[in-house]
Design brief:
The chain is mostly helical and 53 residues long. It has a domain of 29 residues. The longest helix is centred in the middle third of the chain and has 31 residues. The chain is rod-shaped, with a radius of gyration of 22 Å.
């Protein structure tokens, strides 16, 4: 479909289809980012261990 000749309804449908296909991926990456922020990385773990000793 040529975007220049597409009408508003076609563009809206295309947008919704794209959004639907992207949602699982976005959710997947957000989960990974959230998990990484919550669990300390190796350096943080090492620093925590040093403080406890």
């Amino acid at each position: 479909m040529d975007i220049r000749t597409a009408n508003e309804r076609e563009l809206l449908n295309l947008w919704e289809e794209t959004e639907k296909s992207m949602k699982p991926t976005t959710r997947f990456f957000m989960t990974i980012l959230k998990d990484e922020k919550q669990t300390p990385n190796t350096c943080e773990k090492f620093c925590l261990l040093q403080k406890q000793l």
